[in-house]
Amino acid sequence: MNRVVIKPATRRDLSFVAANLSDEDKAEIYCQMDKPDNRLIAEMAYQGSPLWRYVAWLDGQPVLAFGVGLFHSRLGLAWAWGTSHKLRAFPDATRYMLDVVKPACVASGIARIHADALSTHSSAHKWLVRLGAHREAVMPSLGLGGETFYRYAWINEE
Q1: CB count, 10 Å around CB of 144?
Q2: Confidence check: pLDDT of 157 > 80
Q3: Closest Cα to residue 46, out of 8, 1, 7, 89?
Q4: pLDDT of res. 1
Q5: 3-state class of 126 per DSSP?
Q6: For the segment 51-84, what is each residue's pLDDT rounded down to a tens digit?
Q7: pLDDT digits (tens, 9 = 90+) for 8-23
Q8: Residue 93, Cα to own-chain centre: how many angstroms?
Q9: What is the DSSP letter of 32?
Q10: Is the Cβ–Cβ distance between 127 and 115 less than 8 Å?
Q11: CB 88, CB 68: distance < 8 Å
Q12: What SUPFAM superfamilies is this protein classified in (predicted)?
């Protein structure tokens, strides 16, 4: 079947995805938390992205959470994490980000969106590039265990 549907994220959807994170998303998120807590991950996404938070459903189950929160009126912070089935939702989520979310961000006055990804999280790097972001910084020792992160950014040139 493999039918993907993008829906506005609810707390329940985010909680389900956070409770079933892929290994690479666990590695990326947990190294930034003193005490890993999947409920907190879901709640931070819900509270931190009131305008743009979504979940991709695959065959009736949420598999990928993604969105953009505001740091300030011109800076968006992009995020995404999912289950081990998230890769099958990436093409639809990519189209949704490019066709719906990024234009909405620009219309709201956002000039820059950035995202940080663990240096070993190759699927995150590939997805951010597909979304039009470019890698602009290496951030050594950003993780609690000394993990290196890369910062990707998209800048509205208009």
Answers
A1: 11
A2: no
A3: 8
A4: 59
A5: helix
A6: 999 999 999 999 999 999 999 999 999 999 999 9
A7: 999 999 999 999 999 9
A8: 10
A9: T
A10: no
A11: no
A12: Acyl-CoA N-acyltransferases (Nat)
pLDDT(152) > 80: yes
DSSP string, 36-104: --HHHHHHHHHHH-SSEEEEEEETTEEEEEEEEEEEETTEEEEEEEE-TTGGGGHHHHHHHIIIIIHHH
> In terms of C-beta density within 10 A (0-12 exposed, 13-18 middle, 19 or more buried), how is residue 41 classed?
buried
Please determine, for residue 100, whether its predicted confidence score (pLDDT) is greater than 90. yes
The burial class, CB within 10 Å (0-12 / 13-18 / 19+), for 53 is buried
Give the amino acid at 40.
Answer: L
| Domains of the chain, start order | 4-155 (3.40.630.30)
Average pLDDT over the chain, rounded to whole?
96
Residues 6+ apart with CB under 8 A from 93: 4, 6, 54, 56, 64, 66, 80
Whole-structure pTM over 0.70, yes or no? yes
**Token representation of residue 32:** 């930034």
